[in-house]
Write a structure and sequence with these properties.
Helices cover about 30% and strands about 20% of the residues. With about 375 residues, it is an alpha/beta fold. Helix 2 packs across helix 8, helix 3 packs parallel to helix 5 and helix 6 crosses helix 7.
Length: about 375
């Protein structure tokens, strides 16, 4: 079995979360900014794409080298055995980034890499200066940081946050970001979970997937499905094993929202993810929320209110949250917002605050730890 140097990519601030996920799957890891490295074969490529809840992509590192001029870049790329990786009709888009490097023009870096691969394949396949690129896609990535170049193959395709259960619509939180927030709490499905501002239901659905041990990649295809050298049976075998490990829900998951129309979207998403029966959806405003549950987790992504008028209504909502939710002291509570006045409006200083980025927006994850009864 061939072993590859693999790495997972993730959003800023989630390196430690992805690292823990990989270690819990049995991999020895090495962490860098935005990447966690590990080794594995084709089955590991399938497993990690299928199971990682908080990563963006799984890539194969093909080659790493120093490059301070375009001749070196061209020659190092040309020297790789591209015919072993790419069939003659492969479609191979090249994406590139260059940071703090002498070769700083990203379009030039991409075109030089593309030209080197084309020239090598033309030589290897005895073509006359032409490659059809009509076959399956092999997405390549060139990344140069401080003059060290890495060329890699993306095994994932569309980012892992695209689980496949969510209907189209303006959902503000990606699925792997929601899973990442849950992984920053002690949630494991053995205690109740409440999302009192559920929106399209992403947090509650990701919680149900964790609680029921459902692989987040269950519903989708990956880039590796189109690689001609990849064992076509592996995906179905690993998926069948994953489906056999699904377990029943142990503790209740409640998801409520003031808006019935968004709850209907949340229910449809939950249905697509196979967890509609596991989540109790209810239309109710936060100010009217009550529960007889204890010793669980409350987690929410309340509106941020970027414009002044919206901010005033958002901060009024935070005050209502404080009045209704703060007394539920047996619950650990977690709130994500970009509003720096959240603690003041909520009426309590957080036990811990963590800086994150939701897309390009800097946000804080306010953590209020429980007084267990």
């Amino acid at each position: 079995m061939k072993e590859y140097q693999l790495y997972a990519t993730m959003g800023a601030g989630f390196e430690s979360v992805v690292n823990k996920e990989l270690q819990s799957m049995g991999y020895k890891t090495r962490v860098e900014n935005g990447r966690v490295f590990f080794k594995g074969g084709q089955e590991d490529i399938v497993r990690t794409n299928l199971w990682l809840r908080t990563a963006d992509r799984i890539k194969i590192l093909l080659k790493e080298f120093r490059a301070t001029d375009f001749d070196t870049l061209f020659n190092e790329i040309y020297d790789f055995d591209w015919a072993e990786l790419l069939p003659v009709d492969a479609k191979f888009p090249v994406q590139g980034r260059a940071v703090k490097s002498k070769l700083h023009s990203e379009p030039d870096v991409q075109s030089i890499v593309k030209k080197a691969i084309v020239n090598k394949m033309v030589d290897q396949y005895h073509r006359r200066g032409f490659l059809p690129e009509t076959g399956n896609e092999y997405p390549l990535d060139i990344h140069i940081y401080k003059n060290v170049a890495r060329i890699s193959l993306d095994t994932t395709g569309a980012s892992l946050f695209k689980r496949g259960y969510r209907v189209h619509g303006g959902a503000p939180m990606k699925e792997n970001f929601a899973a990442g927030l849950l992984k920053l709490t002690p949630y494991n499905g053995t205690h109740p979970l409440i999302d009192p501002m559920t929106g399209s239901g992403t947090l509650a659905i990701e919680a149900a997937l964790i609680a029921k041990n459902i692989a987040p990649g269950t519903w989708r295809k990956f880039s590796f499905d189109g690689f001609d050298w990849f064992n076509p049976k592996l995906h179905n075998e690993v998926l069948a094993k994953a489906k056999s490990e699904v377990k029943p829900l142990e503790a209740p998951i409640w998801a409520s929202d003031i808006d019935q129309s968004v709850l209907e979207v949340a229910k449809l998403n939950a249905h697509n993810a196979g967890v509609l029966q596991d989540i109790r959806f209810k239309q109710i405003a936060v100010k009217d929320f009550t529960t007889d549950l204890e010793n669980g987790i409350i987690i929410a992504n309340p509106p941020y209110g970027k414009r002044l008028k919206d901010r005033e209504s958002a901060e009024e909502l935070y005050r209502q949250m404080g009045e209704v939710l703060r007394p539920l002291s047996s619950f650990s509570q977690y709130y994500l917002t970009a509003d720096p006045n959240f603690e003041k409006c909520f009426g309590a200083k957080a036990t811990k605050k963590r800086k994150l980025f939701n897309g390009n927006l800097r946000v804080d994850f306010y953590q209020y730890w429980a007084n267990r009864r």
